[in-house]
Amino acid sequence: MRVDQLTTPALLVDLDRLDANISTMGAAWPGARLRPHVKAFKSTELARRLAQHGHRGFCCATVREMEGMAAAGLGDDLLLANEVLDTARLGALVEAGARVTVAVDSSPTIDAAAAGGVREVLIDVNVGLPRCGCSPDDAGRLADEARAAGLAVRGVMGYEGHLVGLEDRAAREAGVAEAMALLATAHDAVGGEVVSGGGTGTWDSNRWITELQAGSYLLMDTAYGRLGLPFEPALTLAATVISVNRPGGWGVADVGLKALGMDHGNPSIVDRPRAKVWFCSDEHLTFGLKDAGEVDVGSRIRVQPAHVDPTVAYHERLQVVRGDEVVDTWAVDLRGW
Amino acid sequence: MRVDQLTTPALLVDLDRLDANISTMGAAWPGARLRPHVKAFKSTELARRLAQHGHRGFCCATVREMEGMAAAGLGDDLLLANEVLDTARLGALVEAGARVTVAVDSSPTIDAAAAGGVREVLIDVNVGLPRCGCSPDDAGRLADEARAAGLAVRGVMGYEGHLVGLEDRAAREAGVAEAMALLATAHDAVGGEVVSGGGTGTWDSNRWITELQAGSYLLMDTAYGRLGLPFEPALTLAATVISVNRPGGWGVADVGLKALGMDHGNPSIVDRPRAKVWFCSDEHLTFGLKDAGEVDVGSRIRVQPAHVDPTVAYHERLQVVRGDEVVDTWAVDLRGW
User: Fold this and answer.
1) Which helix (H) or strand (E) holds A322?
2) Among the four residues A287, B28, B210, B228, which has the most C-beta atoms within 10 Å?
3) What is B30-213's CATH number?
4) Can you tell me the ipTM of this complex?
């Protein structure tokens, strides 16, 4: 099937770009050194491709992602890099044979892990981002508490998410060094083999971790484009122009707020880069005809979302494309909670 | 089941508020005078409740919504209030016995309707919003063209979406009068019994239409709150606090970008109205502990999204609640395209 035969809006993954991104990252972080973050793509088919490239340990953000990965036979080493109190579903995965590790950063999350049947944890350490993670000073105490509750403590994790978007490379490097020094302090107190952290934005500046948690590099956000990273945007949407108002100077395509993550702003039209996006409605994108080239009702356009992760979460499937050919369809089967 | 036993994040509909909104609107726009907009809730169960209140004609924004409504036995009079070129699926609904009307605003959309097996159309007229709709002057010509193509023209539609959020009532009324004068001109040229338009924001200022297309009033956006409308917000999310950082002064709940429509900005915490939302990540909401009252790991909070429609589209189900009791669960079964 050709891309222009797809029902629109359709979410497209450029397979050659995806594979190039996998290879580039895999050369620097081979095998188990990389723990790809499933939240960035929510598809067991894409995860399977990573496993075929030697990455068999994965990182998840939700219990549903953990369940789906285990059900797909990708449960060799699943880390829920997030705090959770509702742990019985994780215990069921352990029972069924998956290796499950969960992040903990407090007594209640430790108690929940133990009570739910989870056996392994990482101590989640706050390294500067105002989100989850204990104080570095508190990590040793929590590790003792976890061990006393019968849990194996595999090590620590800490996400320098406040730094991954810093455009100034020197500032980014200095920030990462400082954040990872906090994580190292915590690791000294905690013990274990794992120091997990990082992300796409710090893939080549974080040299302190034993495994990189990166997901965005696969489909790649435009926001990261300013960092000069070697990963290429691989996600677009095919849309159809359904209305053209020549006197008014605008066109309307059938892709809107419910097909696009909007927290980073409007999408762009990649195959008509000089065309201006005016606004999005639920199921519409209104754009200026000026500088858009030839546009008629029925014209296809290619739209790039401003934020990949919440875009993917709106869609049931990824159409895998090479040029204008649809070569495969992958279910986005890890949505929901 | 009680709300605090639900897996979080969970999307909640307050049934009493929903019913109050249905009654208030139904008193002003009874039966077929109201054509509720399915895009605002994407659930056939909620649509069935509207049908039980006498509203058996519905408005949809996508072909998938049309298909799901027909499959649920709610196909008495379905309007796709949107332009579409991929019409074969609509023709299949007609074959299966649904009444299908589609908006057209150009020769290609008329041709597509006829070719796809659609039998009835409305001429979609642009009344000021830079989106779909023909020029009012062109409506008569398009109606002739549609009839020549064998289509029954039921009338016109025109959506004054540029006016529905105007806070100044007099300005809103004047704008609606002007927009509807354009629609009336078009209707004179087109003929037919239907003049369809309006929305929640103009429910009591649009006196020119034969049927109101309104959906937001059911679950109600906070943005409309400024208009002083008599509809109450009925949609919230239950979330769990998963991490608390007292020295830093923040808490983290398990509801983020993938559970919230973000194009209108951050959500609010309705049961802790003085607490400040700092930011949302994919699966997290970070908020200030200051003025948040007592917060511990495990505390439940209630979050109100800034925009209802794209929030609902992220979720598989609506939990129907009365106070703290979950009294029903409705599938959000009209997602996708």
Assistant:
1) strand A317-322
2) A287
3) 3.20.20.10
4) 0.96
